[in-house]
Amino acid sequence: MNSNRVVITGMGVITPLGLTVDSMWSAMRAGKSAISAIDTFDVSAYKTRIAGVIRDFDADEAIGRKEARRMDRFVQFAVAAAKQALDDAALSLESANKDRIGVYIGSGIGGIRTMLDNYRTLLERGPGRVSPSVVPMMIANMAAAQVSILYGLKGPVLAPVTACATGNNAIGEAFHLIRRGGADAVIAGGSEATIIDLALAGFGNATAMSTRNEEPERASRPFDTERDGFVASEGAGVLVLESLDHAIRRGARIHAEVVGYGSSSDAYHVVATDPDGDGAFRAMRETLADAGLRLEEVDVISAHATSTPLGDLSETRAIKRLFGAGAGRIPVTANKSMLGHMLGAAGGVEAVALVKMIQDGIIPPTLNLDRPDPECDLDYVPNRARACEVRVGLSNSFGFGGHNAVIAIRKYER
Known about the structure:
By secondary structure, this protein is α/β, with parallel strands linked by helices. The chain is built from 14 helices and 14 strands.
């Protein structure tokens, strides 16, 4: 079996903190919050009225009017982020073997906006007025499919749907595909667009979301004793992964190297995480084994850290169980304190942020950590970014249904 090294050569994001990698990273380093009052529809009757909303994304400009009209918003985000990543990678598709380039982009929920808009049309105007494109616009594989179609990429195409673990599962499975020789390159990540009425009502009634509506920027507060739930967000994060040999042959600039991937199931509950963090522990342990890394080699953990009371505590317990007495030395940062929870897109965006940590030697802060939970007693880089050499980092993503996915990224060295 082949065992190729796998490197990251391109990155792209669409987020409420910025529509490019540079703008997002600059805001994260500065500790800025993307959370604000929702003004895209009437939320006066909802328990939660805040989110990470993308307001300045122009799909016609990013993609083209004709193509954009055939896509749900989550697909638009994915296509725009993939274009950024391909441009960043300077991957010439005209001369590439497109049979050897795959697309692994998933979504936790898919085109729920398109589905609901057309259902309302059905009820109000009858079946004859429903769009004939409703199904291909709404199904969750369409982000991967549209990127494949637009660029003529004929390698393996996969669209993981593992709730909030989706982005990491996509990157991890793409990493394993390339490592075993199944592709030369894969465009991988996740996308989500669920800031709509039904999702807001459902999550809110499940008491999963923060109701700190009067202080949006202070609502997402991982590991803080006053945390009261996650804050929903939207966007996409996409990476170009390549075998090292392929990247070197074409003279690519290499951002970092993916070295490990682990996944597991809690097999516990459809929504709640295992209180002891057993699934998270096993996914992190598997990732380190897959990478051949020792515990002491990990320099930072990008935590899942959604700001839910049980979730943050269980992740802390998992980290302490794995790293033992050494857990306290590892900086643990919570990107969702700034970005909000991008659901299926979270893993892709947070992988990009981890690469930037490695490149710049800066760990972004965990915002709003004003009164640390006594049971969450690790080094969470509270409120201010920290200069710190980072050679190896773990990125955690955990989702409803008990899905756990962890990736390890290392500084590239020839």
